[in-house]
Structure formats: C-alpha cells, structure tokens
Backbone:
C-alpha cells in the first residue's frame, strides 16, 4: 500500500473509473503494511509526556551520551537506567543539566516539569539492599510527572516499623513495594491500603532466594487481591505502570 | 489493650491520678494488639462496595450455600469463584436471585448495582480455551461495579483479528489480557494501548507450557512497560486489580 | 477505518473536494484497524490447501461433530487431533466419509487429494510408545498433501536397526523424528541425512524424564546442526512444519 | 561380633589365655556390627514418651488396624497420620479408645497423659485451607505431651487479625506457623515473638504456588532469624520438632 | 494517633468533656500506627542479650567500621558476618578489641560474656569445605552466649568417624549440622540424638548440586523427624535458631 | 548393500571380472545399511543368557500375554515389569509356569536356571515404601542368573539397623541401594563396602521430594566415590547393571 | 571387517572355494565397523558446499588461526563463530582475505560464491540487543550461499513497525526470528507468513527471563503452527537449518 | 567404649568378677562409638591400592604441595584433581616425580605400578570439549592400576566415526562415556557393548544445556539398560567406579 498505488487509486476515483464502492473493495485487498505507521507510536508518546528511556547497561559511555544528547533535544524528560558514573560523566558533557541518581543507578534530565499524576505514588522497600530497585521506581515515576514518597527498610520481620507508616501509605493513590528474600511485604501492604499495589521482587538474598525467584513466586501468590507483579529488579517497570495508573 | 485496662486508664486521667502526659507514656507501653481492629477492615470493605468473595473450590455444596446465604444478607454483591453447577443448585435454594455464570465457573448475586468504575474495562483473551479465566475476570469486575467489554479469540498468530479491535481497546481505561501457551498477547496489547494492562497467564497448553509457567514467564518479561502480572489462571485477581484501578 | 468513513473519503475524491494527495494524507491518519482483514488469513489458507484443524481434546462429541460437519462443507481436508472413538462416532454420523486413525488419535476427512509436497516426508520414532505422536505427524502431513513413509522402533540403543534404514531415510526431503526418554534419536538421524530434521520430544518415559523435559532439552542441544524442535508431543506441529517445508 | 565369638573372647580372658590388652586389640579388629544395637533406639523412644507413629497413607484399613492394635499394647500414645475415615473404622474395632481427628486426618490413641512439654506450643495458620496441616501439628504435639493453643485464619493480608493475638503468641515457648500461597506468615510471626518458630509450607494455592514450592522458598528466605523450616505439608514434623524443643 | 491528638484526648477526659467510655470509643477509631512502637523491638533485643548483627557483604570497609563502632558503644556483643580481612582492618581501628574469625568470615566484638544458653550447642560439618558455614554458626552461637563444641569432617561416607563422636553429640542440647553435596548428614545425626537438629545446606559441590539445592532438598526430606532446615549457607541463621532454643 | 548387489559383486569376482582389490574398493562405496544386522543384537543376547523383557505398563492383558507366550518359546527367562494381577492372569493361561511377584509388580518365567553371576548381589532399601522398587531389582537380577540377598528398612535415621548388616553387605560383589526422600543411604553404604554401588532414587516422599528429584540429586552428589545412579524408580535398570557387573 | 579379511574373502570367491551365496553369508557375520566410513561424511559435505565451521570460543588465537588456515586450503567457505577481534588478528595473518563480522562475532572467508539457496532468507530480530544472534544467523546463511535480508528492532510491543515490513517478509522462502525477553515475535511473524519460521530464543533479558528460558518456552508453545525452535542464542543453528530448507 | 573402660572390663573378667555372659551384657550397653574405628577405613584403602586423592580446587599451591608431599611418603599413588599449573609447580618442588596431566587438570604421582584391573577400561568422549573430563577419568583409572584406551570426538551426529571403533569398544571390560550437549552417546555405546557403561554428563554446551543438566537428564533416561550415571563433569568418579568394577 505504497504512496504510488494509493495515489493511483484515488486518481482512478477522481477520474470516475472507479466508484467509491469499487475503490473500497480494491483497498481492502491491497497490502496495507507499507505505510509508515511506526511514527504514530512516537507521536503519541510525545503528546503524553512519557519520558524517553535508554537502557544504559551494555552500552559504552559514548553511546549513552550520544543517544542521550539526541533525545535531550526534544522537550521530554530523558531517563537512562542501569547507568554507571562513567556513563554519566560522558552524558554530562553533552547534556549539562542531566543529574546522576547514584542510588537508582540512573541518569535523568528533567525538562518537562508538569505534574501528570493525580495523586501521590508511595514506594516501599523491605530492606536497605532493595533501595536501588526502589530508587529506580522513584526516579521513573518522577520523570513521568508524579509526586513520590518513599518508605524504606520496613520489612515484615519488624511489622511495627511498617505499621508506623500506615496512615501515610493509605494516602497514596498507587503503592509500589520492592522486596527480596521471601517477598512478603506486598501482601502485608496490600492488606493495609485500598489502592493498587505494584510488587517488585528483587534479587536481594542468597541460597534458596535463587536470584529473586523466591520473592517473585511469593508475590504472584499474594493473598492480597490488589497486588500485581513485574519482573525481578524491574523498578523501572513498576514506576512506569504506577505512573500510568496515577494519570487515569 | 483490652477494654477494661483502657477504661481504667481513662478513669485514672479523669480522676487526675494521671496527667495526660503520664497517660500517654503508659499507653505507649501497653500491648495494643487486643483491640478488635480486625473489624475495621471489614467496615472499610463494606463502605467501598467490594463484593464478598467465596472460593467455592474444595467446599461442599452445603458449605458454599451456607456462607453465601449469610453474606447475601448484607447489601453487597456476593461472588463465589471456582464453583460447580451442583454448588449453584444448593446456593439457589437459599439465595434465589443468585445466577450461575457457567463459563466463568462463578455464582454471583448482584444486589448493589451502583457503577463504581470511572471507565470501561476491556477483557481480552487469546484463545477459546482461555475464556473461563477471562470470564472470571469479567464477572469479578462486574460484581465490583464496572462496565466490561470483552474481546475473545484474538491471539497473536492472527494479528489482524486483534488489530481489528484496536480502536475499541484504546477506549478502555484498564485492559485485562488472558493468554496461555506462549503468553505473547499482553505485550502486543500493551503496545496498542496507553493504559495499564493486567496480564493473566492461563494454564492452557501442554508439554513445555508446564501448566502456565511458559505464559507466566513470558508476561513477566514483557517488552511493553505498561504490563503487570497476576498468578496463573487468576481471573479473579485480575478483575479485582483492574476494578481497583478503574475506581481511582 | 470503517466502511462509511472510507466511502465518504472516496466520495470526496470523486467529487473533487479532495485531491488524491489530500486523500492520501487523510487516509494515513485514519485508524486502520476496523477493516475486516481477519478474513484474508482465512482465504489464503483455503487457496493453499491447508486442512482445517480442530483440537478435539476438551470438546464434547457433539461439539466436535458440529464443527467438523461445518468445515467439511468446504473443499479442504478436515483434521481433528487428540480425538476419541466416542467423538469419532458422533462425527461419522454427520460426515460419513471421515476416518478414525486410532493410533494417531485423529479423525480425518480427505476431500482434497492433490499432492502438494515435492518429495517424501519420513517419520521416524524411537520406541513403540512414541508411535501415537509419530502417527499424528503422519496424518497431518498426509492431510496436507504429502507422501509419507514411516520408520518405527529404531531407537539409538540398537543403532543397527536405524542404520538398516539409512538409505531410505536419505531419500526423504524432510525428516520428522519422535523420541521420548533421552531424546537422542534426532541427533543420530541428523547426522545421517542432508535435509532438515524436525525433532518432536515425547512425554514417553518416567522419573527423570519429567514428562518429556529430558527429551526436549536433549533435542535443543543436538550436536547435529540441521535439527529444529517443536513442543513436547506436538506431532501435529511437526507434520505442519514439515509439510510447509516440503511445499517449497 | 556375634554372641558366640564375644563369649569366646571373654572366656579366653577368663582363662588367661589372653591379657586384657590382647583382648582389646582383638576386639578392635572384630566386625562390631552384628550386636543387636537396633533395639537401643527403640528403648530410648519408649523411655522418652515419644508416640508410636504410623503413616496410614498407602496402607489398607486392615493393615493400619493391625499395626495400630499391636502398638496400642504398649503404654505409649499411638498416632496414625494421613488417615481416612475408613481406616479409622477398622482401627476402632481393635482399639476402641482411639479417636479420629477428622480435620487433622489423624487417628490418635492417648494412653500416656503425662505433660512433657515445659511450656505452651502455639500453632498458627494463615488461611482456612491450611488447617488440616496445622491440625496435624496440633495432634502430634498433643500426643507428645504438650499443651497446644491454635490461632487460625490470621494471614498477612489482614495483619490486624494477627496482631490481635500477639500477646497470646508471645506467651508460647515454641511457635509453629503453617502457610501456603506466598508463605509470608512465619516472617511476621518471627518478628513478633522471641522464641523459635517452626515454619510449615503448605501446598495450598494454585498456579505459581507450584504445590507449595513458593511458600517453601519464601520461608527458607525469611528475614526473621528465628525461623527454621520443615517439608511442605509436614505438620507431623513440625509438631515433632516443636515437642522436642518444648521438652528441653 | 500522634502525640498531640492523644494528649488532647486525655485532656478532654481530664476536663470531663469525655467520659472514659466515650474516650475509648474515640481511641478505637483513631489511626494507631504513628506511635513509635518500633523502639520496642529494639529494647527487647537489648534486654535479651542478642548481639547486634551487621551483614558486611556489599558494604565498604568504611561503612562496616562506622556501623560497627556505633553499635560497639552499647553493651551488647557485635557481630559482622560475611566480612573480609580488609573490612576487619577498618573495624579494628575504631573497635580495637574486635577479633577477626577468618574461617567464619566474621568480625566479632565480645563485650557481654554472660552465658545464656542452658546447655551445649554442637556444630557438625560433613566436609572441610563446609567449615566456613559451620564456623559462622559457631561464632553466632558464641556471640549469643552459648558454649559450643564442633565436630568437623565427619561426612556419611565414613560413618565410623561420625559414630566415634556419638556420645559427645548426645550430650548437646541442640545440634547444628552443615553439609553440602547430598546433604545426608542431618538425617544420620538426627537418628543419633534425641534433641532438635538444625540442618544447614551448604553450596559445596558442583554439577548437580546446583549450588546447594540438592543438599537443601535432601534435608527437607529428612527421614529423621527432629530435623528442621534453614537457607543454603545460612550459618548465622542456624546459630541464631539454636541459641534461641538453647535459652529456653 | 542388498542381497542382489552383493551377490553380483561376488559373482563378478568369481568370474574374475573384478580382482579382490577392485571388489574391496567397490564394497567400500556401497551403502552398507541394508543388511539385516539387527538380528546380530538379538543373537548376542540369546547367547548371553539375558532375559527377554516386556514393559507391561500401558499394554492390555491380552497384549502382555501374547508377547509373553511368544518369548516363552525360546529358552531364555522372560520378565514383564510394571505388571498387574490382571495381566498376570492372562499370562498364566498361556505360560502356566510364570509366577507373579506381587511386591515387585513383575511377572517372571524362569526357564534358564544357570547361575551367571560370580558373586552375590545385595539389594538394600531405606524404607518399607521403597520395597517395590527394590523387589523389581531383585527379580531382574534373579532372572539374569544371580544370587540375591536383600536388606530392607535400614534407613539412615536408624544407622544401627544398617550397621548390624555391614558384614553381610561387605560380602556382596555388587550392591544396589534404593531410597526415596533424601536419598542418603547410598552414600553411607558406599562408605561401608569396597565394591560398586548402584543407587536407585525412588519417588517415595511428598512435598519437596518432588517425586524423587530430591533423592536423585542427593545420589548424584554422593560423597562416596563408588556410587553411580540410575533413573528414579528404575529397579529394573539397577538389577540389569548389577547383573552385568556381576558377570564380569 | 578389515582390509585383509575382506581380501581373503574375495580371494576365496575368486578361487571358487566359496560360492557367492556362501560369501554373502560370511560377510553378514563379519564385524563391519572397521572400514573407514568416517570419510564419507566429509566428502558429502564438500560436495554440498557446506562451509567448514570452527567454534572459536574457548580456543586461543593461535589455535583458531591454525585450524582456519588449514581449512582455508580447501575450496569451501570457512566460518569461525563466537570469535573475538584478537582471534581475528591471528587469523588474518594466515588467511588475509578473511573478514571479521564484528556484530556477529564471526570470522568468515568466502571462497565459494555460488548461490545455493532457491529464495531469500529473512532474519528478523525483536530488539537491538538480539542483533548479535541475528547477525550470526545472517553470516551463516550467507556463507552457505543464500541471499539474506534482515529486519531488526521490530518487537511486538510496537506491532506497527513489524507490520510495515510484512510484504517484504512474505517474500522470503524461510524466516528466522530472534527474540529474547518474552519471545513473542515468532508467533506474530508465523501468522504473517506462509513459510517455515525458525525461532531463536536469545538470552537477552534479566530476572525472570532466566537467561533465555522464558523466550525458549514461549517459542516452543507458539500458537503459530509453522514455527520450530533451536537452542538459546543459536544463531548459527538457525542459519544452518534455514539454509538447508532454502536449498530444497 | 574408650580404651580404659574396655581394659577394666577385660580385667574384671580376668579376675572373675564378671562371667563372660555378664561381660557380654555389659559390653552391649556401653557406648561403642569411641573406639578409633576411623583408622580401619584408612587401612583398608592402603591394602587395596586405592590412590590417595586431593581435590586441589580452592586450595593454595602451598596447601596442595604440603598435602601431596605428606601422602607421597606412603607407597600409594597420589592424585590431585582440578589442579592448576601453578599448583603443580609447588608440588614438583616437594615431589619431583609428580607429573602434570594438563588436559586432565590433574597432578599424579605413580609409585605403585601394579596392574589391578582385570581388563581394559575404554573412555569415550563425544566432542573435543569433553576431553578434560574424559582425561580426568583416564588418569584416575590409571592411578588405580588399570589399562585404559580412549576414543575421542566420536559424537552421535557422525555415527560412523563411532562405529569404526565398535570392535575395539567391545573388547573393553568397562566403558566410560563422557558427553555434553544432548548426552546421547552413552545410549548408543550402551547398545554396542555388552558390559557396564558409566555415563558422565559434561557441562559442555550453552543455552538450554543448563550447564550439563540436559546431558544429565538424557543419560538418566537412557534406553540402554547397561548405563548408570555419575555427577556432571565427574570424570574422577567415573574413573573410580570403573576401576572398582574392573577389579572384581
């Protein structure tokens, strides 16, 4: 369904060699794939204030800096996840306003400061080792225009530390919960709040944690019905899903 | 922190044997667990229009009917999941307005007809064998006060069948996608819509599907960032999460 | 891009309210998903002589018979896999020329006898217990217009039995190999022939065969480079892939 | 090292054909295995008040009754686990004082009523479906001479229900926690009490619970340091370990 | 339920604006989570002589030293697990009395020398490679005020080496058994002693040991009923559980 | 290399149209697979006194009886494994001297009573539930001409029961050890004897035994170097391997 | 069946000591294995234009260069997979016309430029990280004499990017699809084309991708019947199978 | 049962304070574990010509050299497995006659040259990458006094290469087969020989080989009944088991 054959079709209609009905029949049998619809995606994203995202892991500092600089020319926020200090130094030279969120292992350039989320997103983590994943969720949600509050080191073995924050948690519109080891925290949080909970298993643990598998299975089997789950260590995904919910 | 010791505390304050500061200090060191806070949960649920839910599987028809009848006395909707025709016959005797949604394997009594969802929930399934799980999601979302539209048998190997519905899908506020076998559908749907997608792996398949594991892993690794996942065959959980999102 | 809006577009061109260029620009921005492209698939299949296929498992005899009878009205071959004798009896009443291939657990109606494969397909099985899967591959390939030759009970622990057939195997254009337990046969066959080998792990075995997992992993790690693999017990898929190759 | 050769050895010493040193040297090189030491075990058990235990599963009613009757002749308590009502009917004919604990699927004959545990054992379960496993732990601990208190249906998604019992829990000397699905309860309980917690994963759940694997992994990765774990559904083992601790 | 609102509540009672009954009713509906109950945990630990524990792995020498020095100011013992010689050098500068237990990979500062265990804890290991895990259990139990005796290199393939110690083993009040590879040792030891056995699977082995999974599964399936299990390589957890039992 | 072309080749040599050297060169380039070498296998087996073996599982009584009767005409012993009483009744009608070994689930016809093993084979089992697998090994070894001694219910948790037999075990030329649950017994036996040990994991157990996987992994990781392993529940294979060793 | 005994056989026929029939009988009973049939394989490969292939991984630069140079003397193409730049530098010194395909991590020497494939092979990849595997398939197919077209970065979450190429895809005779993460792309492509699809799971992903396992399972469960699968990251195998199909 | 109490016992018999019967009764109730039976093991080994074995992996060069030198003082052969060149240099200084078998990664000192095996051990490997494991088996068997012949690079995809050696294989008394990837070779070899086959899965492969798991499962499911299996990469164990068989 390239430009030429479509123009010929319209020209035939214009010249009345084809009736609209005949043209429609022909159109239906033309291969429709060649139109450059791919750009549509891109445009929709821009309109919605989604940040441009780079997975920095596995790329050279120069590559990250190059892509970052190119995306930075647009008006959107730019986010590079799983980034290193070395990659940040390369990025900063070309995008001086970019910041490095060391805990989150993320480089972020905030150019679009509009708030898009309708409420607050709470990010909860079980242990201090889960903080990098939690922070990746925080920076993602911030780059997508949300107000974020975090509650760290409130694991289930010291349940009172968590309960001490339950009023604050109940004020959030979406809650992200990051936990490794047994991954029990989302179930407890899910029971405390009346909003959607996005659970992020982390690879924190050893032995029978099997790099996050134990936490993942725990969360999938949560007895709290308001919990859904993203991939192990996927702080970005949790931040993205939560942002999308918070815009509704 | 039972009633008596608390009354004594207040009485001591009233009699001025304790200053408010002293009473506060005492309160802090009392065991606080004995108050019947459990009821709070229950009340909040009632206020929010959540249905009462019974997992019928593993219960006798008499047991299901008994619990159902008791819950039916309240004003909420009542839902029994994984139910059989035999269980329904027992329920109907005690709750004549209850319906049996055969495909969904659910018994439902709709007593509260208020719409609570702000938009439409779309439920998509890959194959005809995934329909029972999809229907469980449908009936759950309906019992929670949502308008639901479904799109069945639109698996990825015939991508045009799915694309034919993409405008309708894009009109939903939340999308649930049920798929077994390779579990690819949520990724494709996730790319077509700009709203949260709840993915439900189903145990449909054989051999290396390992009873839904293949679909589950596929969905957790979705390249679409707006996808989160619930347990295998958990249509109820998907309907619940989607409803919670749709109320926001 | 429903019928009406397209007709309006063509009508506007016809009335010269829009130039072909303007119409093209408009067309590009219309949602294109609503056209009923799904039918295209269907038509292509018919033209290519692919059989209509029903997965009989999990359907009632009446359901299988109903679908079978409907498909039988077309000129294509009709195949029902994982079928029972009881389902066949129901089918036979409505499609008297249908046959039951008991070993293959398949009901087949051959109405299109054209040969579409350019060569012979060889189907090899390791043990007698693998024969049902092998026969499913055989009947699928036959229903798709291929000449098929089978070689059963030629497992690797008695390598001479296999070698006794190596000239015949070498004459095939595609080879399907079904094996359970250690799944070693495709590697040996792959080394004997110079054509593509489709390996089908079967769930034959016990203990550490883990319902075909051992055979599946063995085949995926085949040291013969001309081997590719389908799902456990997927005789139908192997027959389908082999047929598609044999038509080229 | 049978009786005869030992007697000969002693006789040789008595007759002074061998010095004590020579006899010792000879003794060291004799095969020492033939003495019937096996009985020692048996005697120690009897002295310690351990019950005799029969795994009823897989045995006929007649077999269970026969073994039960034989053991009942001793003064110990007798316990048959994973038993059916039918097996109980056979047992009752031969041991009329035996009781059937239906929820626990156990037949028990209490003949030795001495209390051997120094404190109370608490048995906690997450959901109602976990009760059979919890009851197996209860009956085992009772048959081993312990006072037992149970707390059922206090899963982590309704944390207040659990907290309402925390004072009672804190009074136990050992705590057993049974939970399926995500298996999070032992971690929370472990944080609430200052005594050993025996965690029992149950096979309650579906899909990604993988018959108790998710709960098992969760418990092994517990962030509470006072938790140790027994096999899936092993209520008997938990009751046994807890009893052994409670005797110390 | 912050300080101010509670003070106001007590003040109202004092001023008799509220009766005790009315105050109780109000109290019940206040959010109770904000009180700083978290400190309770902490205090209980101090009273019980539990050591303060730092997981040194993944922290810089400076971080470990900083936390260690801060905790050392209290009167409790301090333990850093999974520590390196480099971390120890940093710690020693700030806590000169700290020792490095190289085999256990632990830094320990013993300031509270009271014996809290009522009997002896035996620590048994199968092979020399299991010693680091066993030593972590030893140092943990010692830091928690226990007398510990160890029995190393007494694996089941040389059963006489183990039997040579059976009298000594039988004298322990709790036994910890560390084993990799097939993890068989806890079952044998469990049969030799009449006290609780804490089994620690180690990641010692290769190939089908799958980093300790084989040993873990073996221990969970132990035919000795007095065995419970902790995570792979979790010497700390085993020492902690054993200490808690030994205090009872 | 069929009969005809070979005869032509020899004929050409006979007629001196080809020299022996030329014939050899031609022979090398002929396809050699068509000769019926398969029979060679068969003959070798007959000469060696191997029994004919039928896997009865999955066959009808009539099928088992038919194959059994045919094989019984030869002079070898005949063995049907995984057989039922019903299959035996059908066999007995056609082979009246066949016996049913109920525990072993085997039908055996001993026609060749020559002893072929040079020593004794010991068969050891851990628990009573492992006996069917052990008995399958016993009957296989007997049918292959070996003297067999068994030692049942000597699991590792009561090590003295095993040690009581260690002299008898040490007298065997090959030892088979069957164990489920943790599968520890082969390691202990391996340390007691100086001959090859064939370990058979059984599917006895529940929960984390994962149908014999735990025992299998344990045995593969045995710390005794004289242990090798066969498939889960493969008593036949163990008996076969042991017999082959015992003939050497 | 060595040279001498065969010559003797022929000589006996020539001297008429054996009739052709007798000679045939003798031949059948001679061990046939010693003839150097191994060379046959080699020759067939050479005739068919298959490239010589070296797995460079795990070899020193000198080793790779040595083998490469030796193979380069023949007229075939030479391919070294999983190669490094350092290995290439060593190869180039001895085979100056060899090229390094950096993306594909392959060294290739094209000496035989004949086209052997009858149509075009399309290589599709889901993400940019999958390109190394896709390029390995490309270079393999090219070295085997095929025309190859690639379509990269057309993952399923942006389905329009893929659809934009569907006409071009439909023109291929075989399609290779490389995808990591959820591995959904082969199913979609399989539905778009009417030719065999070779699916290559890649190890791209993290967490629950389990190094390609998720993608592998997804592809094995593909709902498109024309898909078969090779090992994770096996671009070479996919290129080889596709080439073999394309020659038919 | 230490020396002193036994001497006292014998002395009492000698002094006739105890009759032999009384002494026997006393002996039975003494703890028998303290005798140093452990040395028995050691002596038996020395008598049998078993080599002393050191697992060098994870030890420093100095440690390996120290242990090696100590063991070298005895008359047995000494073997260090998984050793490095650096460890060898340290060993050579203290045991100048020690050799380094680089391919086998083993240091060996042959001091006892007696042949103890009654026949030849054949060691077969599938690919060149399996040779280190095969060589470990070779050096182990040689150090245990066996004549060994090896057959390398005879994988199943080129079955004629293996068949070319079948006469030589048939001459062995025990066969060891090492294979990675699909692990099919033991089944084929098992069918060619009439002696025990020890299968060694190797970790050679990638992707779905899962570090040798695929080969392990394949071998456990071998359709050849004379195959038993050792751990992944356990060349030492295979050499040990084969040697033990070959001595019988």
Residues:
């Amino acid at each position: 369904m390239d430009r030429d054959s479509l123009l010929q079709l319209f020209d035939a209609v214009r010249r009345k060699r084809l009736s609209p009905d005949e043209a429609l029949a022909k159109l239906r049998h033309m291969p429709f794939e060649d139109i450059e619809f791919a750009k549509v995606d891109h445009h929709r994203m821009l309109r919605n204030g989604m940040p441009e995202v780079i997975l920095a892991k596995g790329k050279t500092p120069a590559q990250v800096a190059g892509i970052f600089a190119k995306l930075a020319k647009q008006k959107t926020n730019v986010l590079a996840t799983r980034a290193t200090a070395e990659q940040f130094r390369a990025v900063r030279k070309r995008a001086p306003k970019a910041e490095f969120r060391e805990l989150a292992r993320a480089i972020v350039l905030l150019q679009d400061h509009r708030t898009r989320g309708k409420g607050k997103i709470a990010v909860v983590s079980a242990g201090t080792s889960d903080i990098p994943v939690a922070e990746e969720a925080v920076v993602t949600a911030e780059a997508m225009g949300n107000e974020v509050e975090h509650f760290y080191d409130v694991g289930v073995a010291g349940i009172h530390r968590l309960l001490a924050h339950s009023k604050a948690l109940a004020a959030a519109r979406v809650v992200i919960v990051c936990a490794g080891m047994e991954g029990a925290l989302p179930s407890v949080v899910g029971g405390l709040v009346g909003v959607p909970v996005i659970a992020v298993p982390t690879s924190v643990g050893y032995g029978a944690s099997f790099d996050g598998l134990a936490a993942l299975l725990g969360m999938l089997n949560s007895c709290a019905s308001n919990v859904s789950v993203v991939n192990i260590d996927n702080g970005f995904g949790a931040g993205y899903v939560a942002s999308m919910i918070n815009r509704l």
About this structure: The two ends of chain E are 36 Å apart (CA to CA).
